[in-house]
Specification:
alpha/beta, two-stranded parallel ribbon, single chain, 158 residues, 26% strand, elongated
Length: 158
């Protein structure tokens, strides 16, 4: 059984989504289906079809979230004792060797990745290049535009 690494914040977000799906979205779609049924002929009822499709999506997402949470490996970055090593949950500041531009990223699970928030997926090329490196090391990343080199400026666990 595969485990899904995620931060505490990511697990909380998935729990909140699961709660909303079960307590708000599921009852609303059941009500929409009942309303559409009351309108008569279901074979030509677009509202009924849309509600049934929405119900299928909601039930599928509930199953997906329950499976992920059941096999989640929740990691609290603040509790990590990695001695400066880049690991899952670490926040890393990088400097592009060509442009000198600095960027800061936290390495997180796939469901919580958000580049605008500075959170990158553990399976992304840049995260894979960073894992196992230390402050002062150079990470080489094969990007669509070619090979990019980044100096690891800081590694934090927050």
């Amino acid at each position: 059984m595969a485990t899904y690494p995620m931060t505490r914040r990511g697990a909380e977000q998935l729990h909140a989504e699961l709660h909303r799906l079960k307590t708000v979205d599921r009852p609303a779609v059941i009500e929409a289906i009942a309303e559409a049924r009351s309108q008569g002929d279901l074979s030509e009822n677009a509202e009924y079809d849309a509600a049934k499709n929405r119900q299928g999506f909601i039930e599928g997402r509930i199953q997906e979230l329950e499976a992920k949470l059941a096999s989640a490996q929740v990691i609290d970055p603040a509790q990590l004792q990695a001695n400066g090593l880049v690991v899952f949950g670490a926040t890393v500041t990088l400097e592009d060797e060509d442009s000198g531009q600095r960027s800061t990223y936290q390495i997180v699970g796939e469901d919580e990745a958000d580049l605008k928030q500075g959170r990158i997926n553990i399976n992304s090329p840049i995260a894979r290049a960073l894992i196992g490196k230390r402050e002062g090391d150079v990470a080489e990343v094969q990007a669509p535009g070619g090979l990019r080199c980044y100096d690891i400026v800081t590694v934090e666990y927050k």
